[in-house]
Amino acid sequence: MKKACAILLFAATVPTVAFADNVGGCGAGSKLFDGQSGVAPQVLAVTTNGSTGNQTFGITSGTLGCTDDGVVKSNWKTAMFIDGNKERLARDMSVGSGEALASLAHLLGVDAKEQPAFNELAKANLSRIFPNETVSTDQVIVALRQTLASDARFSRYAAAI
Question: Which residues, 6 or more positions from 28, have their beta carbon under 8 angstroms from its beta carbon?
Fold first, then answer.
């Protein structure tokens, strides 16, 4: 009986987890737990989305931070890039140019004509994105996402992180 319950619980959870990225994806769960890190907020965000069905609604309606363009997006490449290039990225942001910053813009899908403004935004928000030398990758990602989301020109790129 315990094995059957475990299998049933797993089967019910898989669709929820499949829709979520490492921070709850989109939907009400991602809004409620936005900016929080750790296992508990991620699980709560995914559970909120899965148990209420709001993520499906958000995707079909283009609301709740979801897109209705039919494109599945994953931010794991961006997160891995940031994790492996924090020092170079911080240095490039401090001067507003460089290969690491250009690579980040490319991963986020920033249009080439917007690259100079993106670089300036990164430079202007360096202390927010990299507040100290021991900042974690998760903290950089959250701060970068918030920085992009707070700028009307670049808010559409925040979901790519």
Answer: 48, 49, 52, 54, 55, 58, 64
Q: Mind listing the pLDDT tens digit of every residue in the chain (161 residues)?
A: 555 444 444 444 444 333 334 444 677 777 777 777 777 777 777 777 777 767 667 766 677 777 666 555 557 788 889 999 999 999 999 999 999 999 999 999 999 999 999 999 999 999 999 999 999 999 999 999 999 999 999 999 988 78
CA-CA distances (angstroms) from residue 44 to 30, 69, 77, 121? 9, 26, 24, 32
* Domain map (residue ranges) of the chain: 2-61, 76-160
What's the angle, vertex CA 149, arms to CA 39 and CA 139, rounded to 5? Answer: 35
Are 113 and 121 in contact by the 8 Å Cβ rule? The answer is no
